[in-house]
Write a structure and sequence with these properties.
By secondary structure, the chain is of the alpha+beta class. It is built from 7 helices and 5 strands, in the order H-H-E-H-H-E-H-E-E-E-H-H. Helix 6 runs antiparallel to helix 7. It is flat, with a radius of gyration of 23 Å.
Length: 230
Amino acid sequence: MPEEVMGVYEDVNEWQNLMFLYRSAIRVVRARLDTMNDEFQFIYQYNPIEYIKSRIKTPESIVAKLERDGYEPTIQNMVDYVNDIAGVRVVCSFTSDIYRLAKMIGKQQGFSITYIKDFIKHPKESGYRSYHMHIAVPVQTSRGVVPTKVELQIRTIAMDFWASLEHKIYYKFEGEAPDYISQDLRACAQIVANLDEKMLSLNKAIMEVEAEERREAAEKKALKDMMAQQ
């Protein structure tokens, strides 16, 4: 932990214990997501998850967030008011995968969903789109189970590409980007939304063709079997 931040945390061991819990919670979430992906592949012959990213907020980011929200930078306030210290981002191919995964996550034993925000149906003013969930994850320790907060973001590849650019612009201009850049960014967000909608439509068309092919193959096989019995 940087020296200028160390003074905020009176008990270094407490800080280290908390970081252990957040890292462990991320591992729990990633393991569950891998299992869900494998199950989906087994049942539907299709993987909804393209890739998964995870991170722990830096001490500087935690302090800055607390101060922006009007809280003293203490460990207790960090635990109580910062819900995204542990973050997991799940990137999917299609918007339909996002809602399917969110539903599956909501059914996971031991997971407690404390907050949901759908920025896909209700984008931010900047154009940002993603599906956010705050989850209390059970972390097993030698002293028992400790529910630990994790923020889960689920988005498409296109949304993730846009959000990555927005993140760079935000830090480049310290949250005050020129109007023409903000306008172009919002325009790009709409292009991303249209692209996701079109890609979903194409995927549905492909699935309908594949379903028809399977139906025709089954009918041919049934006819062949019937003729073989005569």
